[in-house]
Amino acid sequence: MSAWFNPARELDALLRQAAASVPALGAGFNPELKPSDPRHADFQANGVLGAAKQAKANPRALATQLLEALRAGGGLDERLVQVEVAGPGFINFKLTPAALGAWLREYRDESRWRAGAARLMGGRKVVIDYPSPNTAKQMHVGHLRPIVIGEAVARLIEFCGADLVRDNHIGDWGTNFGVLILAIRRAGFQLDAKSPTALEDLERLYKEGSAATKADPALMDAARAELAKLQSGDLANSALWKQIVEVSNAACQRSYDQFGLKTDVILGESFYRDKVDQVYAELAKHGLAEESEGALVVWHDEEPRFSRDAETKMPFIVRKKDGSSNYASTDLATLLYRAEHLKADEIVYVTDGRQQDHFHQLFLTGAKWFKASGRQLPRLRHVWFGTILGEDGKAIKTKSGDPVRLQELIDEAAAKAFEAVSAKSPDLPEAERRAIARAVGVGALRYADLSSNRTMDYTFSWSKLLAFEGNTAPYLMYAGVRVRSIFRKAGLSVGQGEEGADDPVTPAEIALARKLVAFTAALDQSLEELRPHHLCTYLHELASAYGAFYAADSVIVDDPAVKARRLMLCARTSAVLECGLRLLGIEPLERM
Ligand code: ARG
């Protein structure tokens, strides 16, 4: 008996098939299969209710018809799934202990899950654009979300079988370089790329330059002239620019290392400087772009906000009136490059929510341009996120008003985690406690971010993110360590001792088994919406189900059959927890 990797997906497909022979349900019937209240069922299909209303039919009668068609279809094995019509016309599906046992025996480890999930993204070439910071700035708290969310989404996509390219699209070609170069020249500053303070120096100079150019229009013109020189290939400015980018990339890399980030390519905005002319020419040729007050712009009249008639004019400006390129031009050139050279079937952009308009216009423009030029448009998705707020409800800042540096945040997280770990496990050697604290601290920073729905703002709170209780990294990491310790105490390695394990029996075993099987649905949902918080919620529920099981049923018992079955549940819990944490970018621990 072979188990379904993702029962929800299979049932959904079977229901759609069966619906074809129940005309009253209408074409394109959506079963709306959802996880159900676990006391009654694993899933319930609610779609008949709406369809019955449409057809003015009795929903229970229609649901019964659909259920009969489902049975007649032959795809359903009722030894594995119990079905019934319930309430006003839902259909409930309950996995039997036999189905749960079959799943647990078949989907044992990461390699099996990967193989099962590969049908979601297998064979697709995906480019993910993150963390894509602007250069010449130190990494600060604003960079946390693109790093953390970007990495989790990347891992998820890769896990589900895609051939993934992580492309760090750094902002290394913007107006700020004019200001920075001018400030360096005015200060007579000699940039030494090897100096440990190089980036801080650049940041200070940039601040000076930006204050000076704001105060004096003549200096602003001088800054523009420096940028124009850079963009037209002036040797001195190009050499200086190159050094600035190197200093900045090296500093960023030190932050990435602490988050385990490895991007495959860094193709920043500057890479596209000689590729924007083709964009202008093609958009003009296909009548998509037009001149407006000297700039080249694209209108989208079908979208009220971006149309010519909108009150606040918001065209997509693809070339500035001084003839220079901008964020839109480089992004269009980037889109073409990724489609043609990287052969992307799909592109995922990870940025904050303030760029929604930009990406909306980029995607509309890209769709029209590719259609007009007979190209295949990759699937384009903008994975955007909200702001991190301080406990006062405002964006977090230092006392001086500057954003908190990322390194300070990491160090503080590790220091606070060290106190917590030392309180919990005072007997571990100090060096080990320090290493654990780093992992827990960075894990907690990540998890606090990932566990809230990314499109919401979230409130940063040290006490919440480092708590050993609740939906937190320390809680989940500790749960993982506790499962491992069962094996260690029994002198087994994880996965040993479950040979011949049978289907779950006791209520606590069954409840835990059902949570384990629900892993695939959580993966599916996280992938579909590219929202890692679904996976977090799931892992937290799994850890709770494990806690309840552990409290109810002893694992190391004399009866060999009972022991094998419970060891299997422990091993699967350990593997799912650890695999889930890794997908979120959190490295599980052996002890803590
Ligand atoms: N550098 C930009 C920023 O810091 C993000 C770039 C995102 N990627 C893109 N292709 N536009 O806001």
Structure description:
- The protein is of the alpha/beta class and 592 residues long.
- It has 3 domains: 7-95, 2-Layer Sandwich (Gyrase A, domain 2), CATH 3.30.1360; 148-288 and 325-385, Rossmann fold, CATH 3.40.50.620; 406-583, Isoleucyl-tRNA Synthetase, Domain 1 (Orthogonal Bundle).
- It is built from 21 helices and 13 strands.
- Helix 11 crosses helix 12 (327-340).
- The longest helix is centred in the middle third of the chain and has 24 residues, at 235-258.
- The two termini are 40 Å apart.
- The model has no long low-confidence stretch (mean pLDDT 95).
- It binds arginine (ARG).
Which helices and strands occur, and which strands form pairs?
Layout: H1 7-19, E1 33-35, E2 43-45, H2 47-55, H3 59-73, E3 81-86, E4 90-95, H4 97-106, H5 110-121, E5 125-129, H6 144-159, E6 163-167, H7 176-187, H8 198-215, H9 217-231, H10 235-258, H11 276-285, E7 289-292, E8 295-298, E9 316-319, H12 327-340, E10 346-352, H13 356-372, E11 379-385, E12 388-389, H14 406-424, H15 430-450, E13 458-459, H16 462-465, H17 473-489, H18 507-517, H19 519-529, H20 533-552, H21 560-583
Parallel strand pairs: 5-6, 5-10, 10-11, 12-13
Antiparallel strand pairs: 1-2, 2-4, 3-4, 7-8, 8-9
The chain binds arginine.
Arginine is lined by residues 129, 132-134, 169, 171, 331, 334, 349, 351.
